[in-house]
Amino acid sequence: MLYDAESGDFTLVAGGDTMITRRLRVFKEDSFLGLKRLFQDADVRFTNLEMLMHEFEHSPGAAGGTFTGSDPKNLKELEWLGINLVSCANNHSYDYGEAGVLTNLAHLRDSDLVYAGTGRNLSEARAPGYLDTPQGRVALISASSTFSESGRALDQRPDIKGRPGLNALRFSETHTVDRPAFDELRRISSGLGLEALKDAQRRFKPKGMVPEDTDTEFRFMGKKFLLGEEFGVTTRLNARDLEGNLRWVKDARRMSDWVLVSVHCHESGGHRDEPPGFLEDFARRCIDEGADVFIGHGPHVTRGIEIYKGKPIFYSLGNFIFQNDTVRWQPSFNYDLLKLDAGATPADFYDARSELDSRGFPGDSIYWESVVIRCEF
After folding, report:
1. Percent of the chain whose pLDDT exceeds 90
2. Can you give the pLDDT at residue 4?
3. How many CB atoms lie within 10 A of CB 368?
4. C-alpha pair distances (Å), 265 with each of 22, 188, 303
5. Which is deepest, 184, 302, 323, 342, by most CB within 10 Å?
6. In angstroms, what is the C-alpha Rg of the chain?
7. DSSP 3-state assignment of 109?
């Protein structure tokens, strides 16, 4: 007997970022229900879950952006639509700290969704989620290059627990500038007293933690600058994060029939439509090690498609379900940023943030142009 999983046939449908805060099944329009059928007819139905499921029972983390929160019942709405596989590693994974990560994971475990990207420690966050389908077993590895440092999952040690968080994909940037700019940066740093501060740090901290500057390499305000003929920016993946993620890609290749890698990445190349160099490098390395599909998301706009060694790389699918203006509550410091007093309501906050839909996401149509992809293997 030949199982369907041995046929080599496999269909994937995927959408980009999902920030769901409302019911989906209330919509009865034919075109919307057609989208539902598109998902339900596929073997694997993926989206990036850029939303934490909780009941606002935890304190918010560090300030920055929309603090996400959705009724855990909305996971059932995604299942109703047909979604069966979600990535969790993104810049909102730690909106409500360690407790928010763990609560979100608990609600996901109670659902029928397979997930990857966050965990009680780094090993769990990096490990694949596995979805069994009639057409074979599918692995998902989820990472994010955009995150708060406190939200990065940490490994356990023999003497201390790990830290809950996301599977981080760190990278470094190097800025190349010409001679006049290079010399001016050094003059500014000296004039502001930053060179004296660096010298003091070199004497106090372990050797090598504060790198020495040279005639062609200089660090200023946390940035690394190189002397060159032209201006430019290059990026490079963190070696440990690269190795750690590729190790799981290789493991997933042996443990499943199909391997998907998902990365949340706000960073861009020369333009917001272009992926950064480190993401292109990572996507190709993942396919080299056995991934069948690479799916990017994060900038809330679509980016290009590359076919590498016969395998598709989608650098960003844009938004899929984008309901971030109906998150029920926001922390007090978000109101403070907009100079709103304690009597302001959530609607006041969202109106002030977008200046009545004239700025931000509501004010630019490019954020509302998206794609849903279908791949047949």
Report:
1. 90
2. 73
3. 13
4. 25, 32, 11
5. 302
6. 22
7. helix
Tokens 């730690």 belong to which residue? Answer: 94
Query: Are 167 and 144 contacting, i.e. CB atoms less than 8 angstroms apart?
Result: yes
214-240 in b/e form (b: 16+ CB < 10 A) is: eeeebbbeeeebebbeeeeeebebeee
d(CA 228, CA 260): 39
Q: Round to whole Å and give the CA distance between 205 and 13.
A: 51
Smallest CA-to-CA distance from 115 within 89, 96, 152, 95 is with 89
Q: Could you tell me the two tokens for 202?
A: 């070199």
CA distances from 102 to 56, 106, 125, 146 (A): 13, 6, 12, 20
High-pLDDT (> 70) share of the chain, %: 99
Q: Residues 88, 114: contact at Cβ < 8 Å?
A: no
In the chain, ranges of CATH 3.60.21.10 domains: 10-168+238-376
Amino acid at 173: E
Contact of 53 with 100, CB cutoff 8 Å: no
Provide mean pLDDT across the span 135-158. Answer: 96
pLDDT at 97 over 70: yes
Enter the pTM of the model: 0.93
Return the DSSP state at 51. S
Q: Yes or no: is domain 10-168+238-376 CATH 3.60.21.10?
A: yes
pLDDT on residue 207: 87
- Residue 63 pLDDT > 80, yes or no? no
